[in-house]
Fold:
Amino acid sequence: MFNLIKLQILKNKKILLGCMAFIVFYLFTMIMTAELTAPMFENENFQNMLKEMFGMTDAEIASMSGMNGYDMVETGFFHQYYPIILLVLSIILIGKYITKAFETTTMSCYLCLPISRRKYVASTAVSLGLSVLFCGIVAYLIGLLTFNIVDMDVNFWAFSQTVLISTLSSLAVAYISMCLAFSFIGGKYRSFYIVVPIILFFVFMFKDISPILSYLSPFGWENIYLNVIGCPILIAASIYLSIKLFKRRNLSL
Amino acid sequence: MVNIKGLTFTYPNGKGVKNASFEVNKGEVVGFLGPNGAGKTTTIRCILGFMKGNSGTCKIDGKECFENAEENMKDIGFIAGEIAFPENMRAKEYFEFISKIRGCDMRRCDELCKMFEVDTKQIIQKLSKGNKQKVALVSAFMHDPKVLILDEPSSGLDLLMQHKFLGLVNKAKAEGKSVLMSTHNFNEVERTCDRVVIIKDGEIRADKKLTDIKNLEKTFLEVYDV
Ligand SMILES: Nc1ncnc2c1ncn2[C@@H]1O[C@H](COP(=O)(O)OP(=O)(O)O)[C@@H](O)[C@H]1O
Ligand SMILES: [Mg+2]
Structure:
């Protein structure tokens, strides 16, 4: 079992590395953009150009130049997009992982060894979870490091919360999909595997209606913006992956 | 050893295997003949327990194939028609992985690698077709299984390797193993098999001892009314 998990993680290391590379690229671009654009608003020629070309008022320009680049990143991009980028990346990771793992050819090369279907699915689930967690934690560390280096005043707690929460919600997608996969295999715990994802779906759906349930929203209940973008992504991804798995329902080849 | 009774498996498009019955006894090599798309691979997948037949039974050593797939696999060596290997893995790592999962030692594997001249340091996906086939051969024989299920095992092998491979099959037969071999090569059948089973459009059309057949090619073509 341990060997199987190790193998599955190693097999997908390219996707994992791709995700990491993208995170680094994203943070780098973000900071460079901020560094370059912030001083421009202080420049009088640039201000005049904005007035002439876009008809901006003095007040508008003043409000923009009051903001330095780091503020822009922190308030604009950083808090709102970073978790979503992470989420999308994790979902790509999960999707690739699952479609690869349940391909006929891949499965036949494992099932011709003394490995049961149950063990195979379980090892896929565990290695998938570990990969997503790894991706999330590394993204978190890279984020912290980057913003430390450029000496930015980031609210660490808020940062930790958003990043870790988005990782956890990716894990939820993985979990739901794997639950559905398990439920297709059948056996003793079949109903459990079916009921749990359904309950989770309802938790996602009704988060805005019930104030208690809204605590369970993966993006925190006060951040409406994230909920509006993030939750549909989560639900769509879960449904997409379940449909993929449904085609493999008895894990036959 | 391998016992199939009235096995029927239908794919969603209506093709598959219909009411197939035959068996492979101990110390016997059975040739499984039929043109492309006849249902050889489908039958073999049922024997391996990858799929469950719609009706009929399929047993290895008295154990139902689908339910006891994990246990049965300990004694089966398998070469797939469409060979697939874990990605980004060197042949050596692959063999080590198998030996860990199966709990067998690497001695026999090393012997086989030497015999087939396998390049164990290369990533498997980068090997040519014949060399991949050799890796599959080694992985099927390395744990000295009681039952060998070979789906077009010699495709892509050069003549010398084919010769060595047939020697391996004959040795396994002498040791009392059961071998089911799907193939398109009559020469191979004549040199190793005791019995041939011919399948057409998912139905078994002939199940004969090789000694009862005067001309294999003629018999084969007769089944197909050519
Ligand atoms: N996964 C599949 N889905 C639907 N049809 C299939 C599938 N695999 C094989 N078939 C069909 O079943 C028939 C038997 O295929 P197969 O057993 O692979 O033949 P072969 O004797 O060449 O190994 C073929 O007509 C093929 O088109
Ligand atoms: Mg075939």
